[in-house]
Amino acid sequence: MKGYRVFKVLKVIAMVLVGATVFGFVVQSLWNWLMPAMFGLHAITFWQALGMLLLSKILFGGFHRHAGGGRGRWGREMRARWESMSPEERERLMAGMKGRRGGWCRPEPAGPAV
Fold this sequence. Notes:
This protein is mostly helical. The protein has helices at residues 2-39, 46-61, 73-84, 87-97. It has a domain at 2-61. Helix content is 68%, strand content 0%. α1 (2-39) crosses α2 (46-61).
């Protein structure tokens, strides 16, 4: 079992390295093709492209897991909790949540995960 876990970790590390390399070359190629011609900027190196990719991930994407809009464990737990509530409890919860983060809506009905 331990050997399988090590293999799985090495596989994930290899996939991350290959993905970072591919995305780094894509960013570098696009930058060097578009930016000097359009805006008169300098060409960048592969390492600068990786740095830009990391910076954009930090600024715009974060490092969270993409659970897919409530289809993860938290979403399933909240859906189960919602379905176990009485109509009075649901109304009381919705009344308490109004005005927070632009309002609160009922959870999506359970359906096949996409």
